[in-house]
């Protein structure tokens, strides 16, 4: 398969290991194994730790252990363990689904800007991909009327991503139901990339139900990377019709075979502490969103945004005489602060901000970013 470079990943790799203030990060501050153990009741911590230490590291159950699949299934209404495939992150889940559901020539609708995989993999398969704009054209919000204009009787798959990376847009429950009905009317699948599930913002928008709950053509993709702060576990999943899940499993035999056994066990541990982890997220998001809002208000001459309605991300528009790659590289190399270049999403004069970072680092990053932006403002 010939595929275009994943622009954001290439850019992040250049800077992420040496900057002090990564405020471009797409996830929430990661948890450690120690943090997960601390969530256990005190009288069970030692036995949980011992069980992890003595777990034989053989191959794991290929679909993910039954315990993990049951725990994941229970996060949805009326989904069974047989409808879950545990994958190497949401990225593998999406990749398998695109390859199982699509053939060259199929018509696919995907959001844009977006996590690039969502349109680049269907394109690489040879699909005819229509881009559903969620950028400045629609005030960084989903417009279902625009989707309706893109649908044809040949549409095979509609991709939604809510909360949305990189804008923080949300599909309302009514709009999500409309998207599903539109897909159903032409016999298309709906793939819900729900990587930012459970990540609500203060006074944000309500979440639509996961797509898998909407009907037989709905497939949800989830991950522990963003909502659980566990991207290093590489645990994602597909929740969908049992036959689709089975076909994805068959393809995965050729790629990664099974989840890491220790990662599967740590995922089970994390899921037992969902509520504590979500409470921790809320604290981080509330603090950082407040800091970001104050910073945006103070930077009004240069920056504007539509604040995120859910998730961890927002796209900022800047009014400076410099392209986003030059600006983002300069901020990273000279001010040690990472804000992702809009060019990686196809939107010039934008930067992506992530509000999941440790609050003191986030606040310091904003200060450094201001110093960098000031330099260009002076040149304006
Ligand atoms: C929308 C979206 N989907 C999927 C992924 C992949 O996540 P992971 O493979 O870590 O679960 C990401 C990561 O940034 C994302 O933003």
Shape label:
globular
Report the C-alpha radius of gyration, rounded.
21 Å
| N to C succession of SSEs | HEHHHEHEHEHEHEEEHHHEEHEEEH
- Kindly state the mean pLDDT as a whole number? 97
Q: List each distinct ligand once.
A: pyridoxal-5'-phosphate
Number of individual domains: 2
Strand residue content: 15-25%
Give me the side-by-side strand order of the main sheet: 2-8-7-6-5-3-4
CATH class of the largest domain: Alpha Beta
Helix content bin: 40-55%
Would you identify the CATH architecture of the largest domain?
3-Layer(aba) Sandwich
Structural class label: alpha/beta
Q: Tally the helices: what do you get?
A: 13
What is the CATH superfamily label of the largest domain?
Type I PLP-dependent aspartate aminotransferase-like (Major domain)
Q: What is the terminal separation in angstroms?
A: 44 Å
The CATH topology of the largest domain turns out to be Aspartate Aminotransferase, domain 2
> What's the count of strands?
13
Largest beta sheet, briefly?
A: 7 strands, mixed
Contiguous low-pLDDT stretches (5 residues minimum) are: none
